[in-house]
Amino acid sequence: MSGTSPGVGTDRRRVLWGYAASIGAAAGYGTGAVASRALVADHSPPMVASAFSLIFGTAMVAVLFHRNGVAALAKAGQEAWLFMSLSGVASAWGLAFLFLAFKEAPVVLVAPLSGSYTLVAIVLTHLFLQRLEKVTLRTVVGAIMVVAGVALIAATRA
Q: What is the pLDDT of residues 80-107, one digit of tens each?
């Protein structure tokens, strides 16, 4: 990599890994959406299903990341605990409402609508994470296009 500054190749690999992880997240969320719809449609009340989903998810993450997690938790300061708590509560809140939505509406409608959380994340990033990330016009326009796509899907399903 002649002609590049130190760390550029490493940064590129990290970004590519981030993209790959995002695709993995999409596959997991998409599979979870279908399984969740089947679960609440035929087998379990939404709140029970979301609670057990969180339990199984916690167990899976604990098995996969227990070595790194214990060390990280031991080093975590108060601010880290605050953000971990907020993240957990917000995720549980979102999952509970997602399961309630799956009980009442088709997955092909609920999944894209819940995917519009992108706008919430962008607004909150702009308000609270300005020193870490910059929200650009391109990001805002892209998010609006995603939400417009969601609206189109919702309108054709109504």
A: 899 989 999 999 999 999 999 999 998 8
Q: DSSP 3-state assignment of 100? A: helix
Please tell me the chain's helix, strand, coil percentages from 3-state DSSP, rounded to the nearest 5: 85, 0, 15
Alpha carbons 76 and 58: distance in angstroms, whole number: 19
- What's residue 73's pLDDT? 81
Contact between 50 and 37 (Cβ < 8 Å):
no
Give burial (CB, 10 Å; 0-12/13-18/19+) of 145.
Answer: exposed
Where are the domains positioned within the chain?
9-103, 115-158
Distance CA 37, CA 40 (A): 5
Distance in angstroms (rounded) separating the CA atoms of residues 140 and 121: 11
The three-state secondary structure class of 41 is helix
Comparing CA positions, the residue from 158, 94, 122, 136 lying closest to residue 150 is 158
